[in-house]
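Q: Structure for this?
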Amino acid sequence: MAKIIVMTSGKGGVGKTTSSAAFGTGLALRGFKTCIIDFDVGLRNLDLIMGCERRVVFDFINVINGEARLSQALIKDKRVENLYILPTSQTRDKDALTEQGVEKILEELKKEFDYIICDSPAGIERGALMALYFADHAIIVTNPEVSSVRDSDRILGVIQAKSRRAEKGEAPVQEHLLVTRYDPERVEKGEMLKVEDVLEILAIPLLGIIPESPAVLRASNVGMPVVLDDKSNAGQAYSDAVGRFLGETIEHRFVKVEKKGFFDRLLRRTA
Amino acid sequence: MSNQVAFRDAPFQLRGSNFTMMVLKVSDPHAQNFFFALSDKVRQAPNFFRNAPVVLDLDDLPPGQGFDFENFCDLLRTLGLIAVGLQGGTREQQEAALAVGLAVFPQGRAAADAAPAAPRPVAVADAPAATAPAAAPAHDLPYQKATLLVRENVRSGRQLYAQGGDLVVIGSVSPGAELVADGNIHVYGALRGRALAGMAGDRNARIFCQSLEAEMVSIAGLYRVSEDLEKSVLRRQVQIYLDQGFLHIDPVTV
């Protein structure tokens, strides 16, 4: 049975699209047929992060409006088997997302895919609501700082009240916390919230901690999901998170300040 | 002179302009298949109808029958049609239209008689001089419309449609912007977004640009995405046209 996962946060710029790309790619790498949908209508970015922006012809909104078939809009990833991207429109706005339209496409995708990842826009308006409405799982992307935590708390409330599962009185959406841009050094200095602090407020299971890493920006700029960079700690952390999502027991890494060796310090190695 | 300067410094400019718009003649809005039939029509030429402004004409409505503008306009919107006004109509209809934010246009055919001094706000395509109500509508000339001229950079997310004519951009077109024209498209800057010429099916339409960096180019439905553009034409001054069913991209040579 296909599962719909929404990647959401409330706050902008915390790494939803980066995480959607990395997590979706991670699932596909483990053999699951995965589709990532960009719900950020009008501010399309997933295609850039996935490096398929030069192949977009039709989009999500075209399919909703019946101007193109789903198979025409889906873009197959060239690097990873089983991975597909459904880009969104840059020229339209969130009003183009209709509940019936989104439902129809998700139902169609469910027949073919194991996992469907809905990359939510920031905010709690129509785009975000449409992205989370049909979800079975929600991955809450949070930075270790107070405003991000507060917004995550808010979006959790929205999921518990306004998702289809909530409205229909079904089993609730399963929530997972993904802490991104975690910098152990700054946490130690007291400049950043500790994972425990974040968990205390949000009180949902921790899926993963993604360390702050130059590899993320590097990967974004070349259009490669960071999980494919298996040398980077961010890539490994995403891969771990995917494993935990699938039920594996994996210890959290990159949480403590790593003692740098003599050579590392000499070479000023980062990440 | 000083007046003119003052005018130029004003925070806005008010100018007259002509638009060709479709008129939707409604005779029975309660017909069961009304919106099905309309959506069928829309589906035949989705790009033509995409976000198209529509003027309503209720003259064929049985007298005395009420009309729910708000509901009707909402339903039109779901088909991608945007009701912008009411043509003619009774006083009640006009008041109801104004109440939901529609403009009231003078009666199409009789406009000249009813208000000879009033400027015609719309170039109504089906307004021949004939007075017979059953007169056949004048057939649309493919290029009766003036060119759509844009004198600024077209930013990401903006969509321009030159219906029935050419689109000329004096500036650059950013990635994520979309130019659509029934005629030709000229970009006197870099074309980094999408350009779709000959949207209504004109296979003679062409695209010209000063630097080809487009995400997608299309003529009369035949398209090429940026990945398929040959390196030899990238960042070059090119023209794009159809020849014997193939899309050609050639450097402009004079």
